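Lab notebook page, bench 4
Experiment: in silico fold of construct C2
Operator: M.H.
Input chain length: 116 residues
Purpose: comparison with the prior construct
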Amino acid sequence: MMEKAKLKDMLFLQAVLILYSFASVCSKLASGYEFLSSGFILWYGLVIVCLAVYALLWQQVLKRMPLTTAFANKAVTIIWGMLWGVLIFRESITPAMIIGSVVIIAGIWLVVTSDE
């Protein structure tokens, strides 16, 4: 069972990766506007803010956990992207996407548990 500090670090990592995946949402929303229009600048500005904050927080993640654990978990951004697609863009999840998600989670689990 995970100790409290390790669980806290994992939750922090997931929050950082959610922020990273949200930059892609902002990028897609920016693409719906004419180049340099106010809507484009707003959404693209949010992309830059998200990535700047992510870069700072990612350094904290790397201080708290092994590189293999941190980088293995980066693959979960694909799953967060799927969820953003469903919640914001009304996309549907296919069986292949579910299978892919299970493979990603299994791979992360294998990497993380091998560090212990």
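Observations: Residues 4-114 form one domain. The chain has a mean pLDDT of 90.
Next step: discuss at group meeting.
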